[in-house]
Design a protein that fits this description.
This protein is mainly alpha-helical. It contains five helices and two strands; from the N terminus they run H-E-H-H-H-H-E. It has one domain. Helices cover 74% and strands 3% of the residues. A two-stranded antiparallel ribbon has the order 1-2.
């Protein structure tokens, strides 16, 4: 149980860490640009970043569809059942009842395979989230470069 808690905390921390890098940077008018000029530059740089990166932040920032529901894809449960049945038959054969051992092993294998399927599902969801954050970070990096070129400090 502690292992799953640790994994959950690490995944959540990674999501928040990557989300922080994909936020719109803070802009400071280092050359005393007026509020009107800053607004104009901001609008133009947002459009420039969209054109030059091919990234539309309105689309890229939409929530990533997460795989949910029972994790049945990939055949992990079937492979787990097969491995468990073979191992259970060997152990059961030594104990004198290979059939019962194979059944117990197969049941345990299905459970282990399901755990692998859920772990794979979580990894795929995390990868999709990271890809989204990287896309937004690329867009905002271009935006920041444009604003720096116009005399703003970007953080």
């Amino acid at each position: 149980m502690k292992r799953w808690s640790c994994i959950a905390v690490c995944v959540i921390a990674a999501v928040f860490a990557s989300a922080a890098s994909a936020q719109k940077p803070i802009i400071y008018p280092a050359k005393k640009q007026s509020a009107g000029q800053q607004k104009k530059d901001d609008t133009e740089c947002l459009a420039w970043a969209k054109t030059n990166t091919g990234i539309d932040p309105a689309i890229a920032s939409q929530p990533v569809q997460q795989e949910s529901g029972p994790a049945v894809g990939g055949g992990e449960r079937v492979r787990g059942a097969a491995r468990g049945a073979v191992g259970g038959a060997v152990v059961g054969g030594v104990a004198g009842d290979a059939g019962t051992g194979a059944g117990v092993g197969a049941a345990a294998g299905v459970v282990a395979g399901g755990a692998r399927a859920r772990q794979k599902q979580r990894a795929q969801n995390e990868q999709a989230n990271q890809q989204q954050q990287q896309t937004l970070a690329t867009y905002y990096k271009a935006y920041g470069a444009c604003m720096e070129g116009r005399g703003y400090t970007v953080k």
